[in-house]
Design brief:
The structure is a single chain. With about 350 residues, this protein is α/β, with parallel strands linked by helices. It folds into 2 domains: about 130 residues, NAD(P)-binding Rossmann-like Domain (Rossmann fold, 3-Layer(aba) Sandwich); about 150 residues, Dihydrodipicolinate Reductase, domain 2 (2-Layer Sandwich), CATH 3.30.360. It contains 9 helices and 14 strands. It starts with 6 loop residues before the first strand and ends in a 21-residue tail after the last helix. The relative contact order is 0.16.
Length: about 350
């Protein structure tokens, strides 16, 4: 049980992420976190936030950063502003909890990480889906060895929608690579369990009406030979399982918290076999009865946690935050490489002289 004072949050961007997700997630955690300020260009959003949390609100980012009561700035503005807004908060000597994506490009992400190191700032990246029960339990199953040596991992998030908000516009950091991409690429890199040896990708626009991609495929091959196949689509009319894992002794598939397993009984030793040079007759190989085990289980990791518990432990107790900046940079490296040479590659941006203010 926490005995220290709650971490004092200033939420930058009070829209779908800042108010609809992040602020709501800390409800019931008042012993750990307390919203003391919010900032948004839209008056109605400021009023809604003030009514809900009884705290100060600001139209200008500069005023939120100057608020001495704000200890940690939650950056939940548009994706194209993430790196700039996080940098400004770090320079104001605030700790920063940065909504995904970390930035629009790998180059931006590297500059931000270098700044955090230079000013000795605390920068935490919100890859919250690392702590989903299904993902955590799947990692435990792989580590147990019952699937044998994992050969291939397939990760999928699919839907069909003629989306038309700013998340479909490249100028604002739109597209599935920066929307679902950071979550699923992060999963893929953790499940690869080795450095990336090679990468292939393809991007398309199918159903969304902006100029950003809404359909993508990324294939990563690790130095260990393992394959991670990632597909994310807002233009797929038929859903596929969120996870499929194939190993030398079994496999699994999972959607949500339901994990279906099929694996060879680890207590049964398989009879030795050898390749036969002779006439095989009418069969394709020699059939055999294999000791398959099949079960469907509810995801229930042995040590459940979530990103808010980990954030509190890092800020208040000095513990290591499990999502390192190096891991977050690797996610942005894969994402940037996936867009290189495509029509969806971000164009170099020039900042206007006037300071931009947050809007979500």
């Amino acid at each position: 049980m926490a005995t220290a004072e709650p971490i004092r949050l200033g939420v930058l961007g009070l829209g779908r992420a800042g108010y609809g997700m992040i602020a709501r997630e800390v409800q019931g955690r008042e012993r750990l976190f307390r919203a003391v300020a919010g900032c948004d260009l839209v008056p109605e959003k400021r009023k809604r936030f003030a009514d809900a949390y009884g705290c100060a609100t600001y139209e200008r980012m500069e005023d939120l950063l100057a608020d001495a009561s704000v200890e940690l700035v939650v950056v939940a503005t548009r994706s194209s502003d993430h790196a700039d807004h996080a940098a400004r908060a770090l320079k104001a000597r605030k700790a920063v909890f940065l909504e995904k994506p970390m930035s629009v490009t790998y180059a931006e992400a590297k500059r931000l990480a270098a700044l955090a190191k230079r000013v000795k700032g605390r920068l935490f990246i919100r890859h919250n889906r690392r702590f989903e029960p299904g993902f955590m339990h799947i990692r435990e199953i792989i580590a147990s060895g019952i699937l044998g040596q994992v050969v291939e991992v397939k990760l999928s998030r699919t839907s069909f929608a003629r989306r038309n908000d700013w998340q479909t516009i490249l100028e604002f950091g739109g597209g599935q690579l920066l929307n679902w991409g950071p979550h699923i690429v992060e999963h893929g890199l953790r499940l690869l369990e080795a450095p990336v040896a090679s990468q292939w990708s393809a991007l398309r626009r199918i159903a969304a009406v902006g100029d950003a991609e809404d359909h993508l495929k990324i294939v990563l091959v690790g130095t260990n030979g393992r394959i991670v196949d990632i597909e994310i689509s807002g233009g797929a009319a038929i859903k596929t399982p969120e996870y499929v894992i194939w190993g030398t002794r079994g496999g699994l598939q999972c959607t949500g918290d339901q994990i279906a397993l099929r694996y060879l009984d680890p207590k049964v030793r398989l009879a030795p076999r050898k390749a036969e040079r002779g006439d095989p007759g009418p069969t394709f190989g020699t059939p055999e009865e294999l000791p398959w085990m099949e079960e469907t289980i509810q995801a229930n990791p042995s040590s459940p946690t979530d990103i808010w518990q980990e954030l509190y432990a890092a800020v208040r107790e000095g513990k290591r935050f499990p999502i390192s900046l190096e891991q977050a940079l690797e996610v942005m490296k894969v994402i940037t490489a996936s867009r290189r040479g495509t029509p969806f590659q971000p164009k170099p941006r020039t900042r206007p002289k006037a300071k931009r203010r947050p809007r979500r």
